[in-house]
Amino acid sequence: MYNKIFGIGLPKTGTKSASEYLKLLGINSIHNPVDEITFNQLRLGDFDLQILKTHDAIFDLPSACFYKDYDYVFPNSKFILTTREKEGWLSSCEYWWNDILKLTSIESITNFSNQNGNKLVFFKANMFGCIAFNRRVFSRIYDEWHQEVFSYFLGRSDDLCVLELSSNDKQQTLCDFLGKLPTNCGYPHCNNITEHIQNMKKIEE
To answer: Model confidence over 21-57: pLDDT tens digits?
Structure first.
């Protein structure tokens, strides 16, 4: 029996969809927890998170940035690496960072930071080393991240599940990994970039 579940994929790799599907499986999962208690614990290097006393899984940067520490604090846990083709990921990040979050200048970053209490900025800086989108930096992080994760879990195939965004078998892959039966609800598709673009066009019209 596993302990906790940590989603350790980079942003824009289907982390929210995976988290939502775990809920359909009856697993109490939370995506991108940036509440004050969790934020302060992580800033202090306290990885025995209070939120994991009421949840069984966490996803996105608060999970991915510190997966090695969670592996130590919560032994016998499961880790889910959501991933996708690199160029598609870069394009998705560029659109999300520049057009949705609008993190394109010091002023916009400062405003974003003030609105979010520095929380999201903290996690983005921790993962990428910068706040704004930079294709060269993000491309390097993508390569290094996958290499690091695969190296860390070498010989531990029972602990790591690689979930490809384009796969048609995501439900079965997760269920096999977690020892669950598939649901009849289908696999959710959250934060769809195409839908965001269409919605933006409607607003402009």
So the answer is: 999 999 999 999 999 999 999 999 999 999 999 999 9
pTM for this one?
0.91
Residue pair 148/161 in contact by the 8 Å Cβ criterion: no
34's CB contacts (< 8 A; 6+ apart) are: 62, 116, 119, 120, 123
Closest CA to 168 of 183, 182, 185, 187: 187
Using an 8 Å Cβ cutoff, are 152 and 68 in contact?
yes
Q: Cβ distance 16 to 10 under 8 Å?
A: no
Helices assigned H by DSSP within the chain:
15-24, 36-43, 61-64, 67-73, 86-95, 106-115, 119-128, 135-152, 170-178, 193-204
Q: What is the pLDDT of residues 151-177, one digit of tens each?
A: 999 999 999 999 999 999 999 999 999
